[in-house]
């Protein structure tokens, strides 16, 4: 409670805004569970009349949109996590959007001029002050360099960092409360979710990070001219400004424009799949949001990628596990599927019989060819949720990217089978991971590790024998939750002590003070008695 009071005092104004919006939209369960309603600094509001007829998921989605960019990003993350939330909630949260009313040029122009070191009208040969896109984090403008290149200028919205940093502090504290006070929520790893959210948002608040992400992914395809990334114009970039080439492309869901440009949609779907899986399975770094606005069709059946605010990363171990998962799905191996899932969620303790039945049902329901990857992955995460398992965050990001990419490919080719299209990339990944040179490296690393452990073993055995002779071997036992029991005992002891003092005064000391007939003593005694009773009541209420 003391830490909550400190956090509340530090970010009092923002916390008040958050609680007001949540209460105003009728999202009272969250307010009550976090204990916000009872903090005296917060306003007392009744739910708005116009939202009382909405469902709980609708109320939450409306509240999140009103709360701003931090919460919108969090809501979008939750929308992609069917392993955490039921379909009623994820489907509603998928309606969240980052498109907001643009900041006026009068508000954003001075900041851009400060960052560029001169007026945009001087820096660029042409600059359109009307934004072509406006999101919760940044706005995008069209411009042309004096050298003739068409570029986009991405600018962070003013005064954003202070609000987001306050939100992240409050949300991180809320995650700690949830994890400590409700053990049944620990499987959702709220603090880990908040850490990933903070990393993502802090990355988006630094547009230099987006520029670096773009060049990192571009290097993977530097020998291919059919996968296009925008050129970064570093001389104009800073933390709040990004200038890159404007890619003249066609969204994959614009059927008329694709036909007019003579695009081979099936070929484009195959190329898009190859590119995404090359990034994820082979390189371990990938575009985390490949929606139709971020993957563009270009003349000559080329694909252009834009918007690199968030990228995903996969360790070599994760990529190996993914290959095992794909193999288990294709072979309809329920036991292999269950083994991978348990490996990913090792901290949980599920009902193994129930999980085995779920895994068998899963493989049977997805035995037909071609497989719909989006449906397969969504059902896979639903299976995890139904068995009280939560996916690791890095895999959840990948699955979201795969589901999104699969949807884009199906716009291009309704009969698209991503599993079949992934064959060449999967084989290349397996050859890379299980080649003789890779196995030799793993064997060498294992040998070095075993040699190090073996060299320390004699010393450890000798030390243990010496301590056994000296009787200095101790055993440490940690009882989970013991600190809560200790605090409970301390509070109970305090109540007993106060009760004894008050009772002693009432039965022994008070009559003697009254017999003395001294008004001052009587008054002091009554004050002590009243304070003791009040303290006892407070202790009882805060049990």
UniProtKB/TrEMBL annotation:
Residues 95-339 form the ABC1 atypical kinase-like domain. Signal peptide: none annotated. It holds the Pfam family ABC1. The chain crosses the membrane at residues 520-540. The keyword Transmembrane helix applies. Keywords: Membrane, Transmembrane, Transmembrane helix. The keyword Signal does not apply. Belongs to the protein kinase superfamily. ADCK protein kinase family. PANTHER family: CHAPERONE-ACTIVITY OF BC1 COMPLEX CABC1 -RELATED (PTHR10566), PROTEIN ACTIVITY OF BC1 COMPLEX KINASE 7, CHLOROPLASTIC (PTHR10566:SF113). This is ABC transporter. It comes from Methylobacterium oryzae.
């Amino acid at each position: 409670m003391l830490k909550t009071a400190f956090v509340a005092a530090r970010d009092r104004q923002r916390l008040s805004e958050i609680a007001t919006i949540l209460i105003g939209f009728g999202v009272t369960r969250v307010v009550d569970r976090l204990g916000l309603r009872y903090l005296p600094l917060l306003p007392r509001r009744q739910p708005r009349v116009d939202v009382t007829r909405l469902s709980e998921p609708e109320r939450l989605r409306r509240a999140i949109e009103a709360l701003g960019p931090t919460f919108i990003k969090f809501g979008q993350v939750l929308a992609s996590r069917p392993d955490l939330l039921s379909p009623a909630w994820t489907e509603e949260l998928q309606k969240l959007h980052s498109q907001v009313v643009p900041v006026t040029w009068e508000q954003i122009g001075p900041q851009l001029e400060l960052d560029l070191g001169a007026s945009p009208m001087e820096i660029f040969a042409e600059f359109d002050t009307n934004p072509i896109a406006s999101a919760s984090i940044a706005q995008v403008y069209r411009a042309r360099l004096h050298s003739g290149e068409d570029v986009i200028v991405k600018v962070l919205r003013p005064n954003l960092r202070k609000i987001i940093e306050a939100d992240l502090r409050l949300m991180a504290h809320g995650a700690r409360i949830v994890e400590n006070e409700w053990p049944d929520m620990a499987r959702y790893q709220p603090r880990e979710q908040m850490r990933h959210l903070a990393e993502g948002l802090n990355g988006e608040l630094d547009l230099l990070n987006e520029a670096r992400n773009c060049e990192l992914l571009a290097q993977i395809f530097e020998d291919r001219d059919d996968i296009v990334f925008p050129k970064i114009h570093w001389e104009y970039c800073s933390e709040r400004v990004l200038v890159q080439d404007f890619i003249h492309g066609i969204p994959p869901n614009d059927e008329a424009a694709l036909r007019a440009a003579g695009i081979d949609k099936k070929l484009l779907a195959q190329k898009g799949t190859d590119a995404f899986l090359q990034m994820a399975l082979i390189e371990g770094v990938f575009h985390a949001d490949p929606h139709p606005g971020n993957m563009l069709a270009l003349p000559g059946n080329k694909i252009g990628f834009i918007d690199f605010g968030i990228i995903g990363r996969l360790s070599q171990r994760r990529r190996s596990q993914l290959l095992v998962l794909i193999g288990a799905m294709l072979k309809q191996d329920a036991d292999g599927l269950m083994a991978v899932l348990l490996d990913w969620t090792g901290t949980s303790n599920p009902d193994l019989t129930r999980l085995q039945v779920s895994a068998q049902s899963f493989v049977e329901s997805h035995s037909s060819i071609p497989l719909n990857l989006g449906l397969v992955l969504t059902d896979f995460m639903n299976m995890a949720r139904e068995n009280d398992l939560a996916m690791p965050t890095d895999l959840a990001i990948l699955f979201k990217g795969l589901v999104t990419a699969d949807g884009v490919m199906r716009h291009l080719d309704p009969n698209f089978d991503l599993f079949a299209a992934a064959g060449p990339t999967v084989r290349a990944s397996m050859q890379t991971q299980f080649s003789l040179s890779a196995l030799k490296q793993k064997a060498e690393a294992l040998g070095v590790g075993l040699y190090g452990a073996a060299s320390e073993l004699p010393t450890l055995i000798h030390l243990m024998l010496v301590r056994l002779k000296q009787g200095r071997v101790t055993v440490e036992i940690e009882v989970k939750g013991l600190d809560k029991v200790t605090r409970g005992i301390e509070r109970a002891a305090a109540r007993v002590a106060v009760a004894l003092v008050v009772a002693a005064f009432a039965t022994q000391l008070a009559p003697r003070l009254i017999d003395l007939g001294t008004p001052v003593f009587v008054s002091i005694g009554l004050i002590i008695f009243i304070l003791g009773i009040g303290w006892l009541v407070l202790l009882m209420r805060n049990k």
